[in-house]
Amino acid sequence: MTDKVDWIAVDWGTSNLRAWGLAADGSVAVERSSPKGMGKLTREQFPEALTELLDGISGLNDGPIQVLICGMAGARQGWLEAPYLEAPTDLADLFAGAVRPAMPDARFAPAILPGVCQRGGADDVMRGEETQLLGLAALHPDFNGMVCMPGTHSKWARLEGTRITHFSTAMTGEMFELLRSQSVLRHSLTGDLDGPNRSAGFVSGARAGLDHPDQLLGTLFKVRASALLSDRQPDWCAGYLSGLLIGTEVGSKRHLIGEHPVPLIGSAALCGLYAQVLAMIGATGVPQDTTKIVLAGLKAARSRTAQE
Amino acid sequence: MTDKVDWIAVDWGTSNLRAWGLAADGSVAVERSSPKGMGKLTREQFPEALTELLDGISGLNDGPIQVLICGMAGARQGWLEAPYLEAPTDLADLFAGAVRPAMPDARFAPAILPGVCQRGGADDVMRGEETQLLGLAALHPDFNGMVCMPGTHSKWARLEGTRITHFSTAMTGEMFELLRSQSVLRHSLTGDLDGPNRSAGFVSGARAGLDHPDQLLGTLFKVRASALLSDRQPDWCAGYLSGLLIGTEVGSKRHLIGEHPVPLIGSAALCGLYAQVLAMIGATGVPQDTTKIVLAGLKAARSRTAQE
After folding, report:
1. pLDDT in tens, A177-200
2. β-strands A144-149, A154-160: how paired?
3. Intervals of CATH 3.30.420.310 along chain B
4. Chain B residue with minimal CA distance to A232?
5. Domain B3-127 is in which class?
6. Interface predicted TM-score of the whole assembly (ipTM), two decimals
7. How big is the A-B interface in CB pairs under 8 Å?
């Protein structure tokens, strides 16, 4: 038995690989995922990882199935480098920058979408988020404003229709993991981190970060000192560290956040925390359905191929 | 052959153990060091590490030799916890808080000086730096102002004579090591980090940190983006990261730095970098001879024992 699809949408990130087979009417006919993210693969292993994931899927029509990929598969250390578009740019043009890696399995014709870069003093890069932004624009054509994409490397982007005018990256999620597991703070972050004190710690840390985003290097050590002096438990300390980092990030973006609600694209848990911190400064964060956003982005990018 | 001493001064940090045998006239008769810092020892291993280091040293007088210790040996996870004095406090009273761990080798009578803590919203701790501050006060009795102690955990303290009124810790050095070796930035920090571009990277990073200490989480990623987009070499990136972190630290303390020169206590290389960054905001950093400072601190603390 095989699954028949029109084309395949793929989100190939650093940690995970996800694929959706789309029916002719645009609905999802089949969904697959694998832990074979870019970070775990050598260049030579990409084709096999894709074939393995798509096994049993066949096309509605003759000829190879188009596989449209966004994310880190297009990075320099990925499958095949897809050169960046440079912001400000119109994301509706993403497909024009796609690259086509060699694919031994002739049933599939992969194309990898480019990322977006920014030069001139504010050097920055994104891969994958640009497709999400295009998806957001497709679902909300009238949106103009800041978008926040929480994660290992959080992105903040200004979107005007399908145009990205400026963006920046905050290493918030990675910093949390490093500090939790590798730094001197780990001594205060061992045990049950999800206990009842976590939310109080989170609010306290978020307040400190929002009020004094310039004091992060100094405030971080309070996690350790509070455990030593005030018998703060690991769950409180974990909440404090998380809140402090997110509060610092949001606090440093405060001047960019306008009157409009801020769409949040990322894991539900993380988006919930960002919404909570945004609320503390009177702003509104609106968590999005990330899968829906990614799919909408890949569809919107592909819609340009039909016009080619 | 033995070395005869009046008493022994010991600086027992996380990474290293150093000892100086003092002659009756206060001069250093013998100097020893070992890599057996607190971080490498279990509680039971402290006495042996000390005996081993002091082997062959004997006293000028009968009876056990007084060994006065500052630093992490007095931490909860050290040899014997020496409860903190609470800032604001007079460091001239350090010795009153010393604890005396059991010592199987009766030739030596160790005493460990307390650290200093701070409570009430600005929870913080130090162990070892308080003795350096007392040493600075002993060598410069008229000093009133901010002191900066660069390191893994940099300390900034306000000293008024022998009184410490307030202090804070910045995790700058630890953050540099974590980011350099464990984060995504490591991809741009592999190779010759001490090449000719390091100083230009340092100045650029320091400028960014000084100007926008609130933007650290965002600016950090520029290390990676600059390597990807602008072919920045590893030496430039290492300099940028170092400058950004020190610049952010100094920038966040700017409001505390008065007209007076800021004494710098730490490794010569690091103090040189801090002096360079302080100069960028029109302030003056004055690197101190750290060994002289520690010894002066232990001597000053011990001078109180004579009065007891």
Report:
1. 999 999 999 999 999 999 999 999
2. antiparallel
3. 170-287
4. B123
5. alpha beta
6. 0.91
7. 124
